[in-house]
């Protein structure tokens, strides 16, 4: 997916432009109201036909907290809203990127996903398994180590966002961030979410700690996140051959034979925790 540039034309018909301006005006007028996020979602829907949206509070070191959602199909709500917020977020590339200090802005899944993410069991379970094939993401920094994320999901209809639609979303990113920040100032309590794991890193560090070495756990975490042996080697400063050796050893110690089994073991451990 290409990024917008100064030379990229972004055009709306006169009628579509009128609808977007009206919806944006309405969102601004309600930006300090309790239903501000619903009006923001409606404005974005006037700009680009989005299948579903999810707005979350991201507090450093804690599980994300759902603030608003629309359009998530009934049959996928348990997987997305319950399993994701309880444990699945721990392997989500956006959550991991935010935890690592991802700057506010607009991102597409392909911008930040590891090199083998689209072949990972996490992608198959939490994206393809819930009818989603792509995800775009607004992030607004609201201070106190907190951010608000607005995720846009596509895939249930089999269609993807066009290059022009992605450019439009990227172009309105400053306005979306401002509206999210206004909501945070006027409609969001200052106390963050305290549910779930107290620390993302602690959740990873304790997985397999009784049988795996520190390096083997690091390699396991990189595999779970969707990194290849080459990418893992680059991140950890070791050779791909050493990564493969650690992978073989950790599989033997955990009595598993594949990435799929490693993913299943990790998810089972999260549920038990």
UniProtKB/TrEMBL annotation:
GO terms for molecular function: DNA binding. Keywords: DNA-binding, Transcription, Transcription regulation. Gene3D superfamilies: Winged helix-like DNA-binding domain superfamily/Winged helix DNA-binding domain (1.10.10.10). One of its GO terms (biological process) is regulation of DNA-templated transcription. Residues 205-270 form the HTH luxR-type domain. Pfam families: GerE. It comes from the Bacteria. InterPro entries: Sig_transdc_resp-reg_C-effctor, Tscrpt_reg_LuxR_C, WH-like_DNA-bd_sf. PROSITE patterns: HTH_LUXR_2. The keyword Transcription applies. This is LuxR family transcriptional regulator. It comes from Pseudomonas alkylphenolica.
